[in-house]
Amino acid sequence: MGDMTGEHSNNSEALTRYIKCFEYGSQGNILKLHDETPGESRSWTRHYEYDEPSSIIPSEKKNRLSCTKIKSRIKKYHYNGRDGITGSIIAIPSVPTIEYNY
């Protein structure tokens, strides 16, 4: 994620302590990741949503990541085509196409 102060991340003077908390669902999927810097107003929470149909039982939603959210920023993940059927993510916001050679 990088340093939020604008300092260069390789500057040891810019380092600070922080707290990272994770929340998991009953199936072991990460639901929430919260980062905060004690005593400062720098904090954020990433929410994870799993709303993709199961490849085995399409009427059920299981553990395929659909999107992540930080405030109003939403990043969607895709499972189309041959690779998506097996549960492999085929696109993420920073990488529009992912190909597998198995």
Automatic annotation (TrEMBL):
Source superkingdom: Eukaryota
Protein name per Swiss-Prot or TrEMBL: Uncharacterized protein
